[in-house]
């Protein structure tokens, strides 16, 4: 349980806010590349409480500038995409991709006023299906050499989805290894052969035990947390009958991402990106260590559950997330279908727009949540005191040396779970068609 003041400090994201200033020191996913694949590549983007417009100019370069025209505030999303920039339809002021006003066609011919008019604009970079923006001061940081960034484009699929809640509670479900045994419990086990593109449907590593059964039968994981250069490594141990141990390694990537195994073939690296204080997008990068990702199938599976252009889930609070009492009695723990994204969405949205953490009671299995808040508090203090070098991944370390992060499921036959997880990861990387060496 924390004070209201601390809850505000950790959750709010607008310019000048405590957590918002920390988040602004890291690249943020702004949009999927897919979103610009249209005849008129102009899309609204709301990020960290700021209203922006993303467009591709006629040179094929990206611009991310203020959504409201610096003249009198009209919506630039309706702008005319012409003359290698975006022109406001109200009085024709024209902006290039850097946000500079280059023309004011209604002002006197000799006016040089436009030289002093500039919209906000942020640097951007495209990586494996996601357009990233840097909204902080100074030069943007480098990207770490994570698997999702270094794998070739054929082996990474990116998608996003809207959750109507604060980003921190969305992140906290991802660093909570205990919930999988309950929230995602299936009372029946599906055929693991039908598992492509889905989480927790495979059989557990080196066994014929469906993950669903393993999670159900062993609900009390022993959770270990280790701080790393990028954030935290979480190890959840489930001690099975017969002396074997199931080891699940997941990660938190500071300040707002997780990296988790999805199946034996793929990992998910997922950012929980604040739209504003009360809404966020998850942006996932599904990375294959085997063959190329079947992107058409992955996209189709996910588009069936979301509506465009907002990537809003079709199951949501307005239809009780598809809740069905009969299903809850016999098939799933939640009664909300088999898509585990819906379960997580219900869990985090049902807390309220910003979870009231003055009323919570954290247990032993919430250890990573506690550690993460501590890291965020330290980062907030560091930014306030001008100690940027104390932020994770800002300490002068060559980010190209940060790889992985290792995330997998493994079975230790003899109790040496640390060795088992390392060996299973090394095997996967050795067989990987792209250079996945760590
Ligand atoms: S409000 Fe945009 S040009 Fe006038
Ligand atoms: Fe979950």
Your description of this structure?
With 438 residues, the chain is of the alpha+beta class. The chain folds into 2 domains: 40-133, Rieske [2Fe-2S] iron-sulphur domain (Rieske Iron-sulfur Protein, 3-layer Sandwich), CATH 2.102.10; 145-431, no CATH class. It is built from 10 helices and 22 strands. The chain has helices at 4-11, 18-23, 147-150, 167-174, 211-217, 295-303, 325-330, 340-349, 367-384, 417-431; strands at residues 28-32, 42-47, 50-56, 62-66, 80-82, 85-87, 94-95, 101-103, 124-127, 130-133, 145-146, 156-163, 222-227, 231-239, 245-253, 257-261, 266-276, 279-288, 306-307, 312-313, 403-404, 408-412. The strands form 6 sheets. Strands 12, 13, 14, 15, 16, 17, 18 and 22 form an 8-stranded antiparallel β-sheet that branches. Strands 5-6-7-8 form a 4-stranded antiparallel β-sheet, with no helix packed on it. A hairpin with a 5-residue loop joins strand 3 (50-56) and strand 4 (62-66). The longest helix has 18 residues, at 367-384. The protein is globular. 43% of the residues are buried. The model has no long low-confidence stretch (mean pLDDT 95). Keywords: 2Fe-2S, Iron, Iron-sulfur, Metal-binding, Oxidoreductase. Residues 417-438 are annotated as: Disordered.
